[in-house]
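If your schedule permits, I should be very grateful for your opinion on a structural question. I have a record of one protein: its chain in single-letter code and its fold written as discrete structure tokens. Would you kindly read the sequence against the tokens and tell me how you understand this chain to fold? Thank you for your consideration; the sequence and its tokens are set out here.


***
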Amino acid sequence: MIPHSRPRFAADCVRILGDVVNSGHTARGPVSEALEARIAGRLDMPYAAAVDSGSSALLLALFALSMDKPVRKVGIPAYVCRALLHAVRAFGAEPVCMDCTADLRLDPLQAETLAPTLDAVILVHPFGMVEPLVAEDWSCPVIEDIAQAAGGRLKGRVLGSFGEMSVASFYATKPWGGACGGMVLSREPGFNERICRMRDIDTAEATLPHAGNHQLSDVHAALADCRVQRSDVEMQHRRELADRYDAWLQDKRAVRLACDAEANRFRYIVRVDDADRTIEALRANGVGAAHPVATPVSRLLGQVCPGAETARRQCVSLPLLADMSDDERERMYGAITTCV
């Protein structure tokens, strides 16, 4: 089976991990701090705090915002992984779903209507595509989620540099994924200082609204750093493979979702008549296709979002592996031309 995701590490990663283990310091330390500096530099954000997961990054960002002003309602995309829903609920706010259009980006008219009712919004670049609304002026603070879009740009500006804060994920299936981990980046020193205090439960004062063991270990930081340093090469390989898919699907009924030239092409999404049936056929042909989102969070919340429901019925995510072999490409061609 060609997997939907497959993280690969450079040959020297084992040596780098060995150096961390042999150093006698595997908890948070210089490797994690070096990763913070690297990501802050890449995203042109002055402050970075490495944490144990992308979900923790979202949670801590919300708590940091709430220390200035109450955050009761948080806008999140309706067609997104449920990590956002759980982070907002764990924080204690009400999640408000924003529906998507046919290209899986947010509906700008609905977003404009909802914005005045929200205390914060989490904007996601879906599946390696670019969410253009991140560049718009919002009436509430914006947390930009680049978990799937790391390395992409919007009009020459790097993704992750638009919101008051941005969050990244180092989970294994993400573009910068090692094993586990995340990061919160910010422009304001106050946000960063709050997050750094909340991520260390042993030193956090009792007056903080939240505290937990949210630190990123040097072991996990080393794995993530190996992927980050190779991410531009991997992104180029995915873009080249996506061009092949475009050619293979040119005469097919499936609708290829348009992807910005500056996007990182993390996933390859097509619309078909019946996503369940197409995924089943692709898997029968050895391709680990998947729904981009298993269940829209709007459905979990009982909120009506027709765009998200249509996406669930029609959208299929194809493996877009940076290290796909010649044999795997041939198998992908056969499966795509037969099943999609």
In short: The chain has two domains: 13-226, 231-339. The domain at 231-339 is CATH 3.90.1150.10 (Aspartate Aminotransferase, domain 1). The two ends are 17 Å apart (CA to CA).
